[in-house]
Input
Amino acid sequence: MLLVLCVDLDDDLGRKTGLETPVIGRDAVEDAAVALATEDPEDSDVNVLFEGIHLHDDLADEPVEVAAVTGLDGSDVAANRKVGEEVDTVLASISASDDVRAIVVTDGAQDESVLPVIRSRVTIDSVRRVVVRQAQDLESMYYTIKQVLDDPETRGTILVPLGILLLIYPLAIIADHLGLPGAVFGFTSGLLGLYVLGRGLGAERALDAAVERGRSVLYAGRVTLITYVVAAALLVIGGVEGVQTLESLQNAGENLSALEVLAALLFGAIRWFAAAGITSSLGRVTDEYLDGAFEWRYLNAPFYVLAIAAVLHGVSAYFLGNVSLSYLAAVLTGGTILGLFSTLAFAVAESRFPNKASA
Output
């Protein structure tokens, strides 16, 4: 048996005419269509009901029935559920001996969102969309735009740049009274460019992840939060110290090669860099201990930093002519011995005194 199913998802039929749904049978659907057309001649669901009657009459050579089902206004989930219940009522009332196949008649893309609900109850042979000829696809376009703007990600991508563009003119007027037109245009265009570039590169995800990690570290009471800030300050101080060392050598009238310039920068900064590395590594070791995940080999980090810093300091001092070759050899040997000794010592400690996790 063939069932012509007219769908009114927002229940214009029930709300405007007061009729109880579902409406089953050709005469009942025709009366409902006339009643809806009388109440609101501009309602597109009138076309749906008459199209259902038209299909019923065209298919009169085979067993066919027509029915109108409605949803609810304002809630897509509740509307879909109500349509499903009314389809069940229609299927139970027609009492067909053979399988029922349906032709679904709608007035646009919004009503077609209920198709999965109908398909779960009856086989759908075809879907007929009825719109006014002078407004072809107008409702579908409106529904598509509405769905796009309801999506948070799409809304942020489209509306935020559009809002910035619309703000340029009023900002330019305000800035003109303040005598700063160029600054406002530059700032606004720069802001828009940074936003578009960030969206294109996916930087907003990385920024959100970094903020979330920072928040978790802050509320978890991590020692690394403090030590990383101190280490960053030490790195800045080291950079400034390295530049000052280079400038002092250049002011002394020395002609430095590229290798000597690098050595001067490194010679002035390495002590502060080493302090930053040791500070951050000790903070990390402390957090691992507080989390119960401490292992002895983690203590190698500050000794490695100290050994590397000693080696780089000796090499840079040698290229600047501040130390002799024998001093450089002693520093290289001492740094190597320090790294090997710390590795061996903490390996032995880990084997003798294993923590709970490794045990």
Remarks:
- The CA atoms of residues 164 and 335 lie 57 Å apart.
- The chain has three domains: 2-141, 151-214, 221-352.
